[in-house]
């Protein structure tokens, strides 16, 4: 009986270590992807599936992050309704400013991003960017035509 218990304890310890390592890899991969996406898209507009590049300010400066949340645009402005996740935040406080928390991304949010990517989110993002580019080009042409 004790032998079985020891085997079980050993297996749980090994799986705990493997899970911890896998979670760290997932978090790192989500942060890398989020940083890459953040550099490809405009700041302050809602991307497909509720992602958005936002600017966080501290007393020293600002940084941008890819965030996920339920974004609201109304007469009071543009804000997140409920919790938001900063997918590539370093954790802690931005520039050591206690008024600018930048918590590390939760594993749930990392898993949600991975699920979105597996479910075609990058294709949706590409299509969204193409449509945005086409519309901006057409709108610019319309305004140039108006002053000719």
Give short descriptive properties of this protein.
148 residues; alpha+beta; 3-stranded antiparallel β-sheet; two-stranded antiparallel sheet; 5 strands
What can you tell me about this protein's structure?
It is a single chain. 52% of the residues lie in helices and 16% in strands. The protein is α+β, with helices and mostly antiparallel strands and 148 residues long. It has one domain (2-146). Strands 1-2-5 form a 3-stranded antiparallel sheet, with helices on one face. Strands 3-4 form a two-stranded antiparallel ribbon. The chain is elongated. It starts with a helix and ends with a helix.
How large is the radius of gyration?
Answer: 21 Å
| Computed structural class | alpha+beta
Major pleated sheet: 3 strands, antiparallel
- In which order are the strands of the major sheet placed? 1-2-5
Indicate how many domains the architecture comprises: 1
- Uncertain segments of ≥5 residues (pLDDT<50)? none
What's the count of strands?
A: 5
Q: Name the helicity range.
A: 40-55%
Shape: elongated
Query: What is the H/E order?
Result: HEEEEEHH
Which percent range describes the beta-strand content?
15-25%
Number of helices: 3
> How many angstroms separate the termini?
90 Å
Mean pLDDT: 89
